[in-house]
Write a structure and sequence with these properties.
Layout lengths: L4 H29 L5 H13 L3 H20 L1 H27 L9 H21 L9 H10 L3 H20 L1 H22 L6 E7 L3 H12 L4 E6 L6 E10 L3 H11 L4 E7 L15
Antiparallel strand pairs: 1-3, 1-4, 2-3
Helix pairs in contact: 1-4, 1-5, 2-3, 2-7, 3-4, 3-6, 5-8, 6-7, 7-8, 9-10
């Protein structure tokens, strides 16, 4: 489906906002407190400790180098989506750094623990916003994206792994205490990325039911819970007898009512419950004809 100008502008704005949050975190919390957050900022802190390289310049160089690597491996489509971050992040970093010098001294002066919390939350939110638009911040998150391309592992988990390795390496340069603060920041960052990517999705439960009172339970779900159901054929692994499994997807708020209603019909019902984040179709994204 062809996207209109508003959708494209919205995507660009989201990517820019994400990069701005990362730049604010880097300038206000990471560099002043030498937080080992992982990513280009964390790597810059490590290189500064070892070789005295200026952090902001190091970040900019890393951004450009990783962009070229990502373009080669992930292709032109990725390069186009990442180009905004690659160009704008260094500019935003310089802008925020300049504005930071104009602020009253000590305005963002906090202890290392608070700095690790703030940096992790801001960076995680920033990266999450960019990921939601299928983009990249143009930094170390390119490495998780490359690994994800070939393994399909969770992006938030891969970010945690790559940043965790950076933090552990930084312990050599900055000590165990700095590494602990860095681990806190990285964990918060990974959690916030995951939650940001799930923003706007539905909190639902998929319930699979096996019961000798299948027809009664099926009718109850239609009439009382007002949800559609699916009945699937199954074969008992031990008895080798054919049976049926009733599957329904419901809002989390309706889960207690469903469970109580099932057990009021059949106390021996076997129930499997799974958490899901989104469902497309009638009754969820398409209005139900029964409502």
């Amino acid at each position: 489906m062809k996207r209109n100008k508003y959708d494209i502008l919205q995507d660009i704005s989201m990517v820019l906002l994400g990069n701005l949050m990362i730049a604010v975190s880097t300038v206000c919390f990471v560099i002043p407190n030498k937080i080992l957050v992982g990513g280009t900022a964390g790597l810059a802190v490590i290189l500064n400790a070892f070789f005295g390289f200026q952090e902001e310049l190091t970040i900019k160089i890393l951004v450009y180098v990783l962009f070229m690597i990502g373009t080669i491996i992930l292709g032109k489509a990725f390069a186009l989506k990442t180009l905004i971050s690659t160009i704008c992040y260094p500019i935003l970093l310089s802008l925020v750094s300049y504005l930071y010098t104009l602020l009253p001294i000590g305005l963002f002066q906090v202890d290392s623990f608070i700095a690790s919390l703030c940096s992790g939350a801001l960076i995680g939110l920033g990266i999450g916003l960019v990921y939601r638009k299928n983009g990249s911040t143009g930094g170390m998150d390119i490495i998780p994206l490359i690994i994800h391309k070939y393994t399909h592992l969770s992006l938030s988990g891969l970010v945690l792994m790559v940043d965790g390795m950076t933090v552990l390496f930084g312990a050599i340069a900055n000590g165990i205490e700095a590494a602990i603060y860095g681990i806190i920041s990285v964990w918060i960052c990974s959690y916030i990325i995951n939650q940001t990517m799930l923003l706007g999705t539905q909190k639902l439960k998929q319930v699979e039911i096996m019961s000798s009172e299948m027809d009664k339970i099926n009718d109850m779900i239609h009439q009382k819970i007002d949800r559609g159901t699916t009945i699937m054929k199954a074969l008992g692994g031990y008895t080798k007898k054919e049976t049926h499994v009733l599957m329904v997807v419901i809002d989390t708020k309706d889960y207690p009512l469903l469970i109580d209603s099932i057990y009021s019909i059949d106390e021996t019902a076997f129930i499997i419950v799974s958490d899901i984040n989104e469902v497309k179709g009638r009754g969820f994204t398409i209005k139900s004809e029964y409502l």
